[in-house]
Amino acid sequence: MNLATVKSLLKETITEWQKDKVPILAAALAYYMVFSLAPLLMIVIAVAGSIVGEAVAQKEVIEQLETLMGEQGASVIANAIQSQFQPSSSIITTIIGVVTLLFAATTIFAQLKESLNIIWHVEVRPGQGIWEFIRSRILSVIMVLIVGLLLLMSLGISSFLAGMSDWLDKVVSIPSLLRSLIDNGVSFILITILFGQIYRILPDVKIAWSDVAVGSGITAILFIIGRTLISFYLGRATVASAYGAASSFVVLLLGSS
Predict the structure, then answer these.
(1) Domains in the chain, number
(2) Is 221 a residue whose pLDDT tops 80?
(3) N or C end of the chain, less CB within 10 A?
(4) Residue 240 within a domain
(5) For residue 223, what are the domain limits?
(6) Is position 160 within any domain?
(7) What sign results for the dihedral spanned by CA atoms 210, 212, 215, 221?
(8) What residue ranges are annotated as transmembrane (predicted)?
């Protein structure tokens, strides 16, 4: 790929980015994420917790949230998760709670599906009605399960690397920079897989893995950079004093964006 090709690709990307009104789509996703994040993570914790234990899964999720949106944003989500994990004595209440939980958790993926359809210029066939709604929610549930499986992979890899690190420390000292590179490398692989599956599964069009592999990798790199910058900003910005009672909501919006 020569310089002229790169320049042409960047120009086309910016043009399509403006044409599809991506900032508006991103704002909508951030808004829906605020309301879907706690239910989504509850299901992810339940899926991962069934294998590694609820406490271990919840601890890993909270640690990841702290790196993404700072302590304040993670604290808001942690409190919401903790309050929802209280057992209910009524079967009917439990059923209603589970249905509501699934609906709320899958809303973000349903909105993401609509956004990807716009970006891919997919025209959904009219007249599908309730079937399209059900299909959209089923795909969203699949994505929730994929997130849970990736969390399990992350826990397994982290445990393995921690064990290897402890063993190697007895033999040779490992620089902190190398550990950071390994952690970011693992995050890059898992995030690339996640974005790749999102790009392939959610839109109403068949897409080959080869068509999204490069884009998923670039998105993963941008996500890691953005996560670092947002975490740096939230760790030093005085959001609470600037927005008062709405500070928690603003922090969640910033972290979700």
Answers:
(1) 1
(2) yes
(3) N
(4) yes
(5) 20-256
(6) yes
(7) negative
(8) 29-52, 91-110, 138-161, 181-202, 214-234, 240-256
